[in-house]
Amino acid sequence: MGKTIRLTMAQALLRFLDNQYLEADGEESKLVTGVFGIFGHGVVVGLGEALAAGDHGLRFYQAKNEQGAGHAAMGYAKQNNRRKMMAVCSSIGPGALNMVPAAGTATVNRIPVLFLPGDAFACRQPDPVLQQVELPQDYTNTASDAFRAVSRYWDRVNRPEQLMSAMINAFRVLTDPAETGAVTVSLPQDVQGEAYDYPEEFLAKRVHHLERRIPTAGQISRAAAMLRAAKKPLVICGGGARFSGAGAELEQFCQTCHIPFAETQAGKGVIPWDNPYNLSGIGTTGSLAANKIAKEADLVIAVGTRLGDFTTCSKWLFQNPGARILGINVAPFDAYKMNAEPIVADAKLTLAALTAAAPSYRSQWGDRIAAVREEWKAEVDRLYHEEAGPGAFGPTISQARVLGELNDRLLPPEAIAVSGSGSIPSDMQRVWRVRAPGTYHMEYGFSCMGYEIAAALGVKIARPDTEVVAIVGDGAYTMLHTELLTAVQEGKKIIVVVLDNAGFHCIDNLQHSQGIVHFGNEWNTRDEASGRLEGKPVQVDYAKNAESWGALGLRARTVEELARAVQEALAAKGPVLIDVKVSPKSMTGGYENWWRVGTAQVSSNGEVVKAAQAMAAEVAKARKF
Fold first, then answer.
1. Do 298 and 419 belong to one domain?
2. Nearest by Cα to 237 from 313, 306, 318
């Protein structure tokens, strides 16, 4: 029997977290660095007591919204390429439920975040405790069970000794590149304070090893055969390529074999935009260059992508009838998608081996890669200089122009751009020119509105010496901007650029494209005559809102004002918000793309019926699996 130490479950949990390390490619680093959270009665006297004791190396960050706390932890882990992470804690009931969207966001994007929601009493003596959800048909079911649907691993510690198996399993998942995502370990509030004699072995330093899955000779042989049989292959660079650190190998593979590559939101920025084989974003929010090439490709090499519907245009994009899919992914679930030939292996090692296996292969794209790139460059240059007309309350700037000014002229090349929902990710995947690897930080797997500002805080904690800029629409800003106050509190300078077009215009565009009248998405007052939101536009001063938090608030309605505001923001010491009024409908349009949506097949509106018929015609062109 080894030595033991008597601790509360919460104290043992913190000591365990504080001693987790990750070794990757020969480098060892501390894995868990901090805890985000909000104390309520279900956590403050248990885990809160252990955090307050201070006999650990974990920093506590006081969040202002539990969902924001989860997004900040996710932004931190993603910017660290999943090699550092944080935990997030909350009280029971509504505090716990507020974290569910963030857990879903982490799971969809394959980002490790440890969620520690408080829970009802395991002993059941004071039931129902404040904020406890009671379900008569299943008394074991509480608010924390809502995390089951969005977690890669879920557990509840009903006895202090259960912590040991729970944590071992939690970190089994958190450190697995294929299985990682949200891990939820629910903590009943009485058990948090219960003591147990924990083995010192459990609490000792533990090093997790990030092992690269080596491709087999058979896998490389099959992949090389598919490559040699192809005339016009295309690579899709997904987030797995980023997390694998496969940028150099992808660049070498494409150069050696004369193969263009297109980027998903998670894979954008692995290689800078001016690489001669980079076609920019692909799919529904993709570039003209990438989508043109994708339609002709006879082999699609999907590297580290889950092949979501925006990437594949709802399985419509690859229109060459002979096109085959080669799926290179550490996750078998993703490698098998779209009837692909699965190569379940590390992206970096697989690309290097495939390059070596086909050294004399050259595609038949010829000069077409350069031609489509030049065509797209001219279009982006046009968008970057697009003029906009006045809005309801005065001058405005084109949304595409704002992105162009920020990207091309105003921000330093190493600045990290963060975004995550609405029309801004669509525009940025198409036109944002990434100049330095790792500076494009987008959440679009879950498209969770409210990710942007909280994640920017997490990114800034990860990269304190780099400018971090959250580019957010007014819709997403109003949903969740509370972590701007946390940034003020922590003295973490982030620059928030709010593009205000007075509405949910991304969805308004979708609505109108399917023949539906403009309804419920524009920010107008209610018209008493019609009873609809068709009255006067609502004007908001987001800079004043930021000033109330203690941030510097700046405003811009013209390109010249934007330039002055950015210059002032870069010189500032603390958080800054720039309120930019942009013209509605001034985002980029689609480029030879399509997206399947559930258009009404029966309607009194003839335009809707036409849209449904057009949708059905395109559905017939899409792959079935």
1. no
2. 306
**328 pLDDT tier (thresholds 50, 70, 90):** very high
Whether 188 and 285 share a structural domain: no
- Write down the pTM of the prediction: 0.97
Identify the helix (H) or strand (E) that includes residue 406: none
* CATH code of residue 411: 3.40.50.970
First to last CA, the chain: 55
Q: Which of 203, 173, 192 is CA-nearest to residue 85?
A: 173
The predicted pLDDT at position 10 comes to: 98
Q: What is the Cα–Cα distance from 56 to 444, expressed in whole angstroms?
A: 35
Number of domains in the chain: 3
Angle at 287 between CA 285 and CA 291, to 5 degrees: 95
If one counts every other C-beta atom within 10 angstroms of the C-beta of residue 128, the result is 11
Is 605 part of a structural domain of the chain? no
Please give the structure tokens belonging to residue 467. 């400018």
- Do 223 and 268 have their domain in common? yes
Mean pLDDT of 62-66: 98
Selection from 506, 240, 276 nearest residue 350 by Cα: 240
Handedness of CA 510, 512, 515, 519 (dihedral sign): positive
Which residues lie closer than 8 Å to 337 by C-beta, 6 or more apart? 302, 306, 307, 325, 327
Amino acid at 282: I
Tokens representing 24 are 């990757």
Nearest by Cα to 449 from 127, 71, 145, 27: 71
How far is C-alpha 287 from the chain's CA centre? 20
- Indicate whether 96 belongs to any domain: yes
